[in-house]
Design goal:
Shape: globular
Mean pLDDT: 84
Largest sheet: 6 strands, parallel
Strand order of the largest sheet: 2-1-3-4-5-6
Radius of gyration: 17 Å
Distance between the termini: 37 Å
Strand content: 5-15%
Number of strands: 6
Length: 216
């Protein structure tokens, strides 16, 4: 059972998301927060697997909250929700440790799919907005590119192959099929990649791969 938390200052949004998530037998909504500060308090008090977090909220915004949530002893996975597909805050949320983001008008079935994917360790980015946000706000420069390439030098050729597909947005199952590997082996490679690159999730690994020029 996936334990979910909804973080949004709009009561109607919280109600709608709660109804949606609880329609899935594999998801249980264990907490609802009106802002980032309450979200951190609730996540510390309840074991939360996945938090759906709005970007713009009073007291503590979703970006700051994501940083604090990811720093907890038992950090939840974070999916950023926003109405702004080109908002710089979305990229900042990903850099802060969010495992993906979705627009609030995303099809309900895709929101449920995102919760399951992220809970399982994959990333979930809105298919069109992700590329546009990263292209607009993630401009690689020479110092950052050099640092990224040095990080990638720590990887084996096979790990670089896995990272290339991971950065493309492939799931572990997709990578296993593409490289002729067992999914359990892919998971082991991903764990090693995140450790070697000193990043917390697949999204940050993908951004680093982009900096290094591993992906277009």
């Amino acid at each position: 059972m996936i334990r979910a938390m909804i973080v949004d200052d709009d009561a109607l949004v919280r109600l709608g998301l709660a109804d949606l998530l609880e329609s899935d037998e594999g998801i249980e909504v264990v907490a609802q927060a009106v802002d980032g500060l309450q979200a951190v308090e609730l996540a510390a008090a309840h074991r939360v697997d996945v938090a759906l977090v709005d970007v713009r909220m009073p007291r503590m915004d979703g970006i700051t909250a994501t940083t604090y949530l990811r720093g907890l002893t038992h950090p939840p996975k974070v999916i950023t929700l926003t109405t702004f597909d080109l908002d710089e805050y979305v990229y900042n949320a990903l850099a802060a440790g969010a495992d993906g983001f979705l627009l609030k008008d995303t099809d309900p079935a895709e929101i449920l799919r995102a919760v399951h994917l992220v809970a399982a360790g994959s990333a979930m980015l809105h298919p069109t907005a992700a590329r546009r946000v990263i292209d607009r706000y993630h401009h690689a420069n020479q110092p950052r590119a050099a640092i990224a390439r040095a990080c990638l030098d720590q990887l084996t050729p096979r790990e670089r192959d896995v990272l290339t597909l991971l950065a493309r947005g492939d799931t572990n199952a997709d990578i296993a099929a593409g490289l002729g590997m067992r999914e359990s082996t892919v998971k082991a490679h991903v764990s090693r990649i995140l450790s070697a690159l000193d990043v917390t999730n697949r999204v940050q690994a993908a951004l680093l791969a982009r900096d290094a020029g591993l992906t277009a």
